[in-house]
């Protein structure tokens, strides 16, 4: 089967993704209620009892809202680095000692045949991370909630067959939006969120003929639209000399209110 995944929900109202292969199924973040996560998984013919663990990117509520409830309901281990555990412990309630697992930034761990690598990202959290998943020659990388594309992140997600990458906001929409200026400045800063333009610029440096699909994720409902994000990312790539036919490379959508179809990383 190789690596398959579905982005259950992506955005400021809640984030959760399932990554699985032949023998392992992992939930990345649990930023919605346990009931809603169950509903979204059921839409993709999956049960919480099929999960083997939960990986946490950082402690913001749109990534951990249902974390404790899901872990307790299905007796699942939670994997996060030490600083993230310290930052989120009071918010997620009591977790069984055997289900508190530490996966430090930069570490690699194996879940049977699925290998997971954690890498640090830039965001206003205790110690935020992204993850890359490996099964044989297949690679899936998930990087959202990052203020900018650092060399560390670029190295970590390069050569991924498929990426889930943040394209949070349109800069002009954000500047003209209703948020107070200090919030706008935080979002646009190095500890905030990646804009459409920045995502396109980053992808122009990452494209090497290996990456087949990029899912644009964590879009702001107030300051972005999916079609605008796809257009801006594509234009930013082309302005930097990065041209691809749709048959060679695709920009794919994620949603805040429904899961993406299962995608097989090895699919063309």
Distance between the termini: 14 Å
Compute the average pLDDT.
96
Percent helix: 25-40%
The quaternary state of the protein chains shown equals: single chain
In order across it, which strands form the biggest sheet? 6-5-4-3-2-1-14
| Content-based structural category | alpha/beta
- Major sheet, described briefly? 7 strands, mixed
Q: What is the CA-atom radius of gyration, in angstroms?
A: 17 Å
Order of helices and strands: EEEHEHHEHEEEEEHEHHHEHEE
What would you call the shape? Answer: globular
Strand content: 15-25%
Low-confidence stretches: none
Say how many strands there are: 14
Please count the helical segments: 9
Pfam family, one: Lactamase_B_2
InterPro entries: Metallo-B-lactamas (IPR001279), RibonucZ/Hydroxyglut_hydro (IPR036866), WalJ/YycJ-like (IPR052533)
Organism: Paenibacillus polygoni
Domain Metallo-beta-lactamase: 13-218
List keywords for this structure.
single chain, 268 residues, globular, seven-stranded mixed beta sheet, 14 strands, alpha/beta
